[in-house]
Amino acid sequence: MLSNRLSATGIRCAKIVNDRFVRVISVASVCCTYRQSRTMLNLFEPLFDIPTAYYGALLGVGFCVYYLFEVVKTPMLVCANGPFRSFLEEHVPLVRNKFWPTLWCFESRAQTIIASILRSRILPSIHYRREILTLSDGGEVALDWAEKGCSTTSPIVIILPGLTGASQAEYIKCLVSSAKKVGIRCVIFNNRGLGGVELKTPRMYCAANSDDLSEVVEYVKKIHPHVPLAATGISMGGLILGNYLAQQGIMARGKLKGGFLISVPWNVFAATKNTEENYFNLMLNKYLASTLRKNLQRLHYSSETGMFDVDIDTILKSQTLREFDSHFTVKQFGYKDVEEYYSNATIHDKLHLIDVPLLCLSAADDPFQPFQAIPVKEISETKNVAVVVTSRGGHIGFMEGMWPVKEEQYMGKLFSQFFTALFTTGFDRSNVTNL
């Protein structure tokens, strides 16, 4: 018994000694840490005396260095060696010069949104001469002519707006302003149901169908048989134009002198996927889907019985472009599913079929078309197609300068330089053949 008590007492004593030892060590550690912290504070103490302005200057210098070396870059010109590439390098200076995106707004989505807002407020409305063209199936489209100050022999460029755009869209006004300065007439082809024209038939438009464009080209060519004619497509309008040129092939030579695409979603699968994965891109996707829903709702209820034989309630619940296309576009144009439609709409695999000079402008950071989806390899092997890829610019943005309030922006300047050269230099397309 005595031995057990002595043993228990010894254990308690050892524990007490051990606890005190731990506390001593802990206090010593805290003291050591405190001394180290004081030493570190002493090292940085001189920095606390530096005025805040110096930190601002340091950040400003760092930002400027980043801007100059990572943002400002000479665009990538992709085109096979040959007459068309030589023509661009000689007659279109912008392909050789650095692109200076707006200093305070070079992020892709900021370029996309702010460019639209600024242009819509800065650029005045354009007075057009409207012409209603009745198509072969009884449908009607509006052709808006911008020809003030031009002669009857001035060359003409047909402009195809984007998904929900019309002749007063801010990017259209930007191009028309640039064309006016170099004496080029523009005619804006408003898709069915857009531009204030009521729908006459239960049919709208889609990226893969170029029947309406074909009729417009034939009509403009018929009334101006001896005037040089070209075309420009923006975003989805670029898909329609690209598909038209691929389908027409060599026959397009006798109709169009050349084409220009801006922010075209080359690969529609990649474009829709990119706008569905990122939160901010998804917001842009949903905004366009909501605009399509509103247009469809307005057109559908323009007649007492409804214009379209569709499940309108289901369509109006579409939250994304893919859902809208699945519920409406696919059924309108007889596709099996949205995958078949997107496969027909995409143009990245049809470039070898294009037989007229086609210049394209894309941004590497376009939220609607990731850089890896731009068909750089295919274009580098195609002598009729060239693409200028800027490091920044967003989707139909391409704002440049400290305060981008000028009417003529980067894409407008590229538009006017390219078409002026195409119409005046006598560029011989017969020398341009694909590999």
Tag the structure with descriptive keywords.
single chain, 435 residues, alpha/beta, Rossmann fold, 9 strands, 47% helix, globular, disordered C terminus, serine esterase, AB_hydrolase_4_CS, transmembrane helix, acetylesterase activity, transmembrane
Topology:
Layout: H1 2-48, H2 52-71, E1 76-78, H3 83-91, H4 108-122, E2 129-134, E3 140-146, E4 156-160, H5 170-181, E5 185-190, H6 211-223, E6 229-234, H7 236-248, E7 259-262, H8 268-277, H9 279-300, H10 312-315, H11 321-332, H12 338-345, E8 358-363, H13 376-380, E9 385-390, H14 410-424
Parallel strand pairs: 4-5, 4-6, 6-7, 7-8, 8-9
Antiparallel strand pairs: 1-9, 2-3, 3-5
Helix pairs in contact: 4-5, 5-14, 8-9
- Low-pLDDT parts are 1-11, 13-32, 430-435
Order of helices and strands: HHEHHEEEHEHEHEHHHHHEHEH
Shape: globular
**Cα-to-Cα separation, first versus last residue:** 105 Å
CATH topology descriptor of the domain at 75-267 and 346-431: Rossmann fold
- Helices, by number, come to 14
Question: What is the CATH class designation of the domain at 75-267 and 346-431?
Answer: Alpha Beta
GO molecular function: acetylesterase activity; monoacylglycerol lipase activity
Transmembrane segments: 52-69
Protein name: AB hydrolase-1 domain-containing protein
Family: Belongs to the AB hydrolase superfamily. AB hydrolase 4 family.
